[in-house]
Design goal:
474 residues, alpha+beta, Beta-Lactamase, Arc Repressor Mutant, subunit A, 3 domains, six-stranded antiparallel beta sheet, five-stranded mixed beta sheet, 11 strands, disordered C terminus
Length: 474
């Protein structure tokens, strides 16, 4: 690799100021690793792609010995000393030995002078003979177990930034998935060889194993998508890391999503849902301490918010706050906050089972967006303008009818009972409201807009000027 290539590749892939993430470039990296035919080939491909993508002089992988207390270098690219190509890294000693032991990614700008990890004379001598200084290390984790560590190393001082560490960890995750796949295949082949019976029996063993591998892969992908969704909503991922993680999961980083914050219809929410749903809806994650699931839904998805919630197992009458569309880590984080705020407003207004969009022009959308009180007041006045010309008694009576009707979810009988009047009286008042607001006020977005405005008016919310809080009469 030339000096020009070493400089240009990190700039192309990892610069936070770069425009769109090079989707095809990173996809090629992933295919080079997952297309390997054996565990040894996977590790060799991992070294090759780490060296290429990070632009380092060397890359090597140390694999933990079974039942041992050390990792041994088993694959490398760019190393020049024969000893280092089979070097033993004692656990908890040196950068690589520490990462291979505890599974936490780390880096050092200058190995020899770094006191943040333990050194040993023998290991320091080997590193010095190889001429290594700046080193980044990430764990390779298969099935929840750390099987070793992958290192990218430079023969000059070098500081590895967050996006470079994120890419190193992602490539290790791809290699780990490929190794897990090869492990399962070897186990399947062994079972086939050991199986007794006819050819049909052997085919059944293979079929079941293939189904198991498929289910396992989908489940792993679902977990990784949930983790990405949770990190986006919590603001724990920056733009370069998001682009890289999206590509690793087979997603387009430029894809625009609507963010749905969903409170289930009834009962506690499971931590996550099955893989078939997550294939359709990119990701979802439960909010810690809240009975809420946040889902990223691709823009253009024809399914309505309630149907999406039902498919997630959250009930056909879940309460949903929607925000977006948005693309990229920062915009999706902001949309997640708006969706959560919209959901809380719906629940606070007693609108369980409703769907509201933070981008709607009505009062709820303005509240979700944190608009100024004067802006919200102006929208309330516009929505409730048909009541403005009524005398105070009629205005108060209509407001009371609206509140009761909304409280009783549109049931005339229950509304009459709540108001202490005859049902015919309610029918008469509803007819009068039809004349004031038009027949469309009883459903859809118009209903939500009117209900929000009415409840804020009756609650006497301070929106920049005093709002009448006189208790509604019958």
């Amino acid at each position: 690799m030339t000096e020009t290539e070493r400089a240009s590749v990190p700039d192309l892939l990892l610069s936070a100021g770069a425009g769109s993430w090079p989707f095809g470039e990173v996809t090629a990296m992933i295919r080079a690793i997952t297309g390997a035919r054996s565990r040894a080939e996977v590790l060799d491909a991992l070294c090759s792609r780490i060296r290429y993508s990070l632009g380092t002089s060397t890359a090597y992988v140390a694999v933990n010995r079974a039942g041992g207390r050390e990792a041994v270098v088993s694959s490398s690219h760019g190393l020049v000393t024969p000893l280092f190509r089979t070097l033993r890294l004692p656990h908890c000693i040196g950068l690589g030995g520490l990462v291979a032991s505890d599974g936490v990614a780390r880096s050092t700008e200058d190995y020899a002078g770094d006191a943040t990890f333990r050194h040993s004379p023998a290991l320091d001598r080997s590193v010095r003979q190889e001429g290594l200084r700046g080193i980044a290390a990430a764990p390779v984790v298969v099935g929840g177990n750390v099987i070793g560590a992958a290192m990218a190393a430079e023969r000059d001082r070098r500081r590895f930034g967050p996006q470079e560490m994120a890419l190193l960890e992602a490539l290790c995750a791809v290699a780990a998935a490929a190794i897990g796949h090869h492990t399962e295949l070897r186990a399947a082949e062994r079972r086939v060889r050991e199986a007794d019976g006819c050819a049909e029996g052997l085919r059944e063993v293979v079929r079941r194993q293939r189904e198991l591998l498929t289910a396992t892969a989908l489940d792993a992908q679902a977990r990784q998508r949930e983790e990405l969704c949770a990190d986006l909503v919590a603001g724990r991922v920056d733009e370069p890391a998001y682009r890289m993680r999206a590509v690793v999961l087979g997603l387009d980083p430029a894809q625009r999503y609507d963010v749905h914050a969903i409170a289930p219809q009834a009962g506690p929410t499971a931590a996550r849902v099955g893989a078939p749903t997550t294939r359709q809806h990119v990701a979802m994650s439960s909010r810690p301490g809240e009975d809420v699931v946040v889902a990223l839904v691709p823009v253009g998805e024809p399914t309505g918010a309630h149907e999406i919630a039902a498919r997630l197992g959250l009930g056909a009458r879940a309460t949903v706050g929607v925000a977006g569309p948005a693309a990229g880590a920062i915009a999706l984080h902001d949309a997640g906050r708006q969706a959560m705020r919209t959901l809380r407003l719906l629940r606070g207004l007693g609108r369980d089972g409703a769907v509201a969009d933070a981008g709607s022009p009505g009062p709820l959308g303005l509240l979700a967006a944190g608009a100024e009180p004067g802006q919200i007041r102006a929208v309330l006045d516009a929505v409730l303008a048909p009541l403005a010309d009524l005398d105070e008694d009629r205005r108060t009576r209509h407001l009371a009818t609206l509140v009761a009707w909304f409280d009783q979810d549109g049931s005339v009988k229950r509304t009459a009972r709540a108001l202490g009047v005859h049902v015919n009286t309610v029918y008469g008042r509803l007819a009068g409201l039809d004349e004031l607001f038009g027949p469309g006020w009883r459903g859809g977005r118009h209903r939500l807009e009117l209900e929000t405005s009415v409840r804020l008016q009756v609650l006497g919310t301070d929106l920049g000027r005093t709002v009448s809080s006189t208790p509604p009469s019958r």
